[in-house]
Design goal:
The chain is an alpha/beta fold. The chain has a single domain, classed as Rossmann fold, CATH 3.40.50.720. It has eight helices and eleven strands. Helix 4 runs parallel beside helix 5. The two termini are 21 Å apart.
């Protein structure tokens, strides 16, 4: 795949982690931010860890204009506003991956549950706000930022949900480029509501047991799992 991946909101922990992993896999990555200088600083940090990495930093709208393969990694409370701002810059015919989870903060500011979303899920809200002709794909909600930003192989599966089969296949390919990740076609975009809800459970388990757990789906035929690793 030759297209660059623009990670919108990419200076946050999850965006940085995905950018780091894809840079290590040889992908061309653009880190997007509201502040171009901050995005460029984030890109330099990744280059320090991955010599020769093809990573740059841009303001979010410029990142959208530079490629039609986008990854949205922002908190739920900022999702709708950002998409409305970026709508004119998002290219028709592109792919918009979304890792947003509608988390509600509990005691001590910790995410304890998911919020209800009128559209059904954060990903479905993205589909409603994105320009027509853009394929929205829900993925990476259950991949922990701490693990993504580490050096070890991941220990998780990524469930990919979309109403566009070609977009699902491409995102599964991208997910499988991350060591230790298996990608699984999770069906239609509406299934993202289930995947998003799992995130709050995983966060609670990791807090309770002081770990960095993910999910694994077992018992499916080998053909169900997309992986580039033994």
């Amino acid at each position: 795949m030759s297209r660059a991946i623009a990670v919108l909101g990419g200076t946050g922990p999850q965006g940085m982690g995905l950018a780091l992993r894809w840079a290590r896999a040889g992908e061309t990555v653009i880190i997007g931010s509201r502040d171009a200088a901050r995005a460029q600083q984030a890109a330099e940090k990744i280059k320090e860890r991955v010599p020769g990495a093809k990573v740059s930093g841009m303001e979010n709208a410029a990142a959208c204009a530079a490629t039609n393969l986008l990854m949205l990694t922002v908190p739920f409370e900022g999702q709708a506003e950002l998409l409305k701002q970026l709508k004119p810059a998002i290219q028709a015919g592109g792919i918009l991956m979304d890792a947003t989870v509608p988390l509600a903060a509990g005691v001590g500011g910790r995410a304890s549950r998911t919020l209800g979303v009128w559209q059904g899920s954060a990903a479905q809200q993205t589909a409603e706000l994105a320009p027509k002709g853009v394929a929205v794909v829900a993925a990476f909600q259950n991949t922990g930022a701490d693990a993504l930003n580490g050096d070890a192989a991941m220990d998780c599966d990524v469930i990919v949900c979309s109403d566009d089969a070609n977009a699902t296949a491409l995102v599964c390919e991208l997910a499988a480029k991350i060591p230790g990740v298996r990608a699984i076609d999770g069906g239609k975009l509406e299934n993202a509501r289930i995947v998003e809800q799992i995130t709050a459970l995983i966060i609670g388990l990791n807090i309770r047991h002081k770990g960095h757990g993910g999910i694994r789906i077992t018992g499916l035929p080998e053909s169900a799992y997309k992986t580039n690793h033994p």
